[in-house]
Specification:
The chain is built from ten helices and 14 strands. By secondary structure, it is an alpha/beta fold.
Length: about 290
């Protein structure tokens, strides 16, 4: 991360965790930001590469770069010279409630776009397409035939995820090991390294992020299979579902970042060594999802 980003984070952010819900958002977020000069955003610290902590405990990730761009666009929109950013700690379990309860204005992370009827939340335009794959040790590549039932094959999954459901349905004869909590993926891939499991299933982009974080060699020692993911999904920002002006503004920023190739540059910064693998998956899933929308 460059010095400008570090200065921005160190001077303008406050990373908090809340458990007490407040009344759901009902007022215009843009008007609130004009009045307070404060933008409140939730970021995960367990979702490489979107938001995570280095070994030195510093927060890093794609979402921090995106927030910097987002803040600058918001300053232009509202004609304000200064907007402070307050970061709130979001998790796999509380991310939707933080938005629903009006604690944050949006949440940035690996959020699969879908309907959440029980909560007052909606997703932004998609900013990334990805899919479910297995991370395996390359020396076992010939032993894991995905066209079989994978009986007696030990597959690790993050509990209560789409990847878990897919693997349990597709390979009911496999031995499934569930990993929980904010360190679940980290511990799952450590179990793979220790040969306690034969494969770890997850979203491609998150698997690649963990591989880089744990300094594994993707392509030589570890590989993602199948080359084309089992399924495809889109990620979006989480927004409140009762503020059309805010939704329109956020979507305009997301779309402009994609159109201007800024998002691609951000991903290249974080994934310089494996960007080709990411682009193959993203391009395939983007085309598949577009066909489904037609």
């Amino acid at each position: 991360m460059n010095s400008k980003s570090l200065l921005f984070l160190s001077t303008l952010t406050l990373f908090l965790s809340f458990s007490t819900p407040v009344k759901a958002q009902s007022k215009s977020i843009l008007n609130e930001i004009v009045r307070t000069g404060l933008l409140k955003i939730g970021i995960r610290e367990d979702a490489v590469p979107f938001g995570y902590r280095y070994s030195n405990n510093n927060l890093a990730g794609v979402c921090l770069d995106f927030i910097y761009i987002f803040k600058e666009k918001l300053k232009e929109k509202l004609n304000k010279e200064v907007i402070l950013v307050r970061l709130y700690k979001s998790t796999f379990l509380n991310r939707f409630e933080l938005v629903n309860d009006g604690i944050i204005h949006l949440e940035c992370g690996p959020n699969v776009i879908r309907k959440i009827p029980e909560l007052n939340v909606i997703f932004s335009s998609p900013f990334l397409s990805t899919g479910t794959q297995l991370l395996i040790n390359k020396k076992k590549q010939n032993d894991i035939n995905l066209n079989t039932s994978l009986v007696r094959v030990n597959i690790g999954v993050l509990d209560n995820t789409d990847s878990q459901q897919l693997i349990e349905i597709k390979y009911p004869a496999a031995n499934i090991t569930k990993f929980q909590g904010i360190t679940g993926s980290f511990r799952g891939i450590q179990a793979l390294q220790g040969e306690k499991i034969d494969a770890f299933a997850g979203d491609s982009i998150l698997l690649i992020g963990e591989v880089i974080l744990q300094e594994l060699n993707l392509g030589k020692e570890y590989v993602l299979v199948p080359k084309i993911p089992f399924n495809c999904k889109e990620y979006g920002l989480i927004l409140p579902d009762n503020d059309s002006q805010w939704q329109e503004f956020v979507n305009s920023v997301v779309n402009s970042v994609i159109t201007d190739a800024k998002l691609s540059k951000i991903f290249k910064k974080w994934f310089s060594g494996v960007i080709d693998e990411i682009e193959v998956i993203e391009n395939f899933c983007h085309s598949q999802l577009n066909q489904n929308h037609e």
